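Changelog-adjacent note: as of this version, every example in the card shows the full chain rather than a window. The one below runs 149 residues end to end.
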Amino acid sequence: MRKYIYTTLIVLALISSCQKDDFCVDPITPNLVIRFYDNANTDNYKKVSGLTVWAEGLGELYTDVSTDSIAIPLDPAKDFTVYNLKSSTGEDQITINYLRQEVFVSRSCGYIYNFKELDLTNVSNNWILNTEITNSTVKNETEHIKILH
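Full-length structure tokens:
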């Protein structure tokens, strides 16, 4: 009889210790979104021809594309990321400075990073004529930087 009681207690303990599995569906660190605009009419999008984008010391994210917007990651290990943007009319380098904010999502997803207080420095202005920060906090993938060319 004791054997059955111990076995029943062990089985009940095992069943009660089981938990529903947590799955991380989609929380990821958001990318910085850059939109390209016409310098003559700053409300109109303008595609960049032959755009190639790469981060300093890393591989290319975009290679010879024609687009009016890009989404690029920021480095969560540093307070800045240096990007090179090459178009069919020239090459520019920009440094994007920010403050990192670690955000706990859940046990299964862990942490993501949001970035705030965006600032652009060292824009070389070869084909990029002007820049504007439209949203200084990167916590979702909406437009953050406006580049006029």
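Structural remarks: The chain has a mean pLDDT of 87.
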